[in-house]
Design a protein that fits this description.
By secondary structure, this protein is mainly β. The chain has a single domain, classed as Lipid/polyisoprenoid-binding, YceI-like (Lipocalin), CATH 2.40.128.110. It has helices spanning 2-14, 73-83; strands at 22-35, 40-53, 58-64, 69-70, 91-98, 110-122, 125-138, 141-151, 170-181. It has an 8-stranded antiparallel barrel. Strand 6 (110-122) and strand 7 (125-138) form a beta hairpin. The longest helix is centred in the N-terminal third of the chain and has 13 residues, at 2-14.
Length: 183
């Protein structure tokens, strides 16, 4: 049910009336990074769907978890099979708002500090997320950047006992999206 709600919210945001000021991308970038005692883990996903309605601040993301690419194939396999269980939970979604969207002037180039607040769903668990970031208006494009840290336990992602002391219990998420004005 929750997944249906998130998909519906994403579709609703994507279908605002033509007069609405919305920006979208299908090629956003999310980087995962974790620095454990023994193992450093880094993965990139450049197939991130995102939409922003600058009139309301509504902001959504949808990420296909199998699209994360790791340096080592075995890490990618473990990530998908043992940690996020991407066959069972294929997507991660965020539905929220840029709470101070009125501070972003899309009429001229500039960089603005923003606060993003919403619900992140991953591994079948939804939690509130609030983070600071920036939005830069540059040549008609809106570039959004944010960095935050998540505890794996908050999303019921378990670390196998054999590697529990080798892998960090938190993961750093770096978001970098360049949104184009929707037609």
């Amino acid at each position: 049910m929750r997944t249906n709600y998130l998909i519906l919210a994403f579709v609703a945001l994507m279908t605002f009336p033509a007069g609405a000021q919305k920006f979208i991308t299908k090629t956003g970038h999310i980087k995962l990074y974790s620095d454990g005692a023994v193992e450093k883990i880094e993965a990139h996903n450049r197939q991130v769907n995102s939409a922003l309605d600058v009139a309301t601040g509504d902001f959504v993301f949808k990420v296909l978890l199998k699209s994360f690419e790791f340096e080592k194939a075995l890490m990618q396999e473990h990530f998908n099979e043992n940690y996020v269980e991407s066959d069972k939970f294929p997507n991660s979604t965020f539905v929220g708002k840029v709470t101070n969207i009125k501070d972003v002037n899309i009429a001229k180039d500039g960089t603005y500090d923003v606060v993003v607040d919403g619900k992140l769903t991953m591994h079948g668990v939804t939690n509130n997320v609030r983070t600071k970031g920036t939005m830069e208006m540059k040549q008609g494009k809106l570039i959004g950047k944010a960095k935050f840290t998540l505890a794996l336990a908050d999303y019921k992602i378990s670390i196998p006992g054999a590697v529990v002391n080798s892998i960090s219990k938190t993961i750093e998420i770096n978001v970098d999206v360049t949104l184009d004005k929707a037609n």
